[in-house]
Write a structure and sequence with these properties.
187 residues, Autophagy-related protein 101, alpha/beta, 4 helices, 5-stranded mixed β-sheet, 36% helix, globular, Cell Cycle, Spindle Assembly Checkpoint Protein, Chain A
């Protein structure tokens, strides 16, 4: 199975809006990939009157909270005006060597989200960008027929990882390589 890659349009926002918007986008993707008995939870951004739904899963919420904080810290440290992160979903596959069988995580879907920090942002424009992004997420998920077999019965049956891009201005070769190379999942 090949890794499907979805690149969302760059979202322009102010520094103070970044953490909330990152959480909104990541939760929207995870909610669409949640399977089984999912407890939806309605959320509203404080920075703009935008509502979205997230899966009420404490582990995923903690992971997203930590990664949004890490992205914010990275931007402060680098004094960056742009940021990029990806969320990748994995399938566990058996890998047989001569004498042993192990499992490996194989990426089957990756989402790339880019942000540009701007000095001022009209709330109407940010609302429109968020609406477009969430609609694009829903559209892509509904068209995707390439989902691996489900092997777990919990809300998040596929392991996932969230990676933050490390450089503000990567070279063209690095940028192309990073776009097509799924990040490794930590065990």
């Amino acid at each position: 199975m090949n890794c499907n890659q979805y690149i969302l349009e760059e979202i322009n926002l102010q520094y103070s809006q970044l953490k909330e918007v990152v959480q909104c986008i990541l939760h929207s993707i995870l909610f669409q990939r949640s399977l089984g008995t999912v407890k939806p939870r309605d959320m509203t951004l404080d920075c703009v009157e935008f509502s979205y739904v997230k899966a009420d899963d404490p582990t995923s919420s903690k992971n997203i909270e930590d990664k949004s904080e890490e992205l914010l810290s990275s931007i402060i440290k680098r004094k960056a005006k742009t940021a990029q992160l990806s969320i990748s979903f994995y399938e566990k596959r058996a890998k047989t060597n001569f004498f042993t069988t192990t499992t490996e995580n194989v990426c089957w879907e990756q989402w790339i989200i880019s942000f540009r920090l701007v000095p001022t942002m009209d709330q109407k424009t940010l609302f429109s960008q968020l609406t477009d992004s969430v609609n694009k997420i829903i559209e892509n998920v509904n068209q995707d027929k390439n989902i691996p077999p489900i092997q777990a019965s919990n809300q998040m049956p596929f392991p996932f990882s969230i990676q933050i891009s490390g450089s503000e201005n990567p070279g063209v070769a690095d940028m192309v390589w990073n776009m097509f190379k799924p990040p490794q999942i930590s065990k």
